[in-house]
Design a protein that fits this description.
Elements: H1 2-5, H2 9-33, E1 38-39, E2 52-55, E3 59-62, E4 68-71, E5 76-83, E6 86-91, E7 97-99, E8 103-105, E9 107-111, E10 114-120, E11 125-134, E12 137-138
Antiparallel strand pairs: 1-11, 2-5, 2-12, 3-4, 5-6, 6-9, 7-8, 9-10, 10-11
């Protein structure tokens, strides 16, 4: 203890400054890479007949975390229910993930032809997409 107290004040301040800077950097990274999820309730679809829809064009998405994802042209999606924010579509032939601290499976949430966010089943929550993207599905039976 006496060694620390006998050090020049400038050296002590440098250590404290480095510690504070490290803490601030970690806090900043945490806020950038965390996925914001709000708890919500998934209601079943109105109709028991829900055709599989096909994405007409590839769509690049920049997530709010800064990561990018691409919804491939021709990918298949099935309506699995609704939440307050829109209709929820689950991928049929592949897993789709969004990236925060860790990748997590997600379903598309679409309202008025726009991707407004993602339903995260493991969290039973909605993760908003602040930069909305237009989404166009082919009509059922047409690919």
């Amino acid at each position: 203890m006496s060694k620390i107290l006998n050090q020049p004040p400038s050296r002590h301040l440098a250590r404290v400054g480095a510690l504070v800077l490290t803490c601030l950097m970690l806090a900043a990274c945490q806020s950038i890479i965390a996925v914001d999820v709000v708890h919500t309730t998934l209601s079943p679809p109105d109709s028991p007949e829900n055709p599989i829809l096909t994405l007409e064009q590839a769509q690049s998405i920049t997530l709010d975390t800064g990561y990018e994802r691409t919804l491939p042209r021709g990918s298949h999606w099935k309506l699995v229910g609704t939440i307050v924010e829109g209709r929820v579509y689950k991928p049929v032939d592949a897993d789709f993930t969004i990236q925060g601290k860790d990748p997590v499976s997600a379903y598309l949430v679409i309202s008025n032809g726009q991707l407004v966010g993602f339903f995260v089943p493991i969290e039973e929550g909605f993760s908003p997409l602040y930069k909305r993207v237009s989404i166009s599905f082919a009509k059922p039976g047409k690919t």
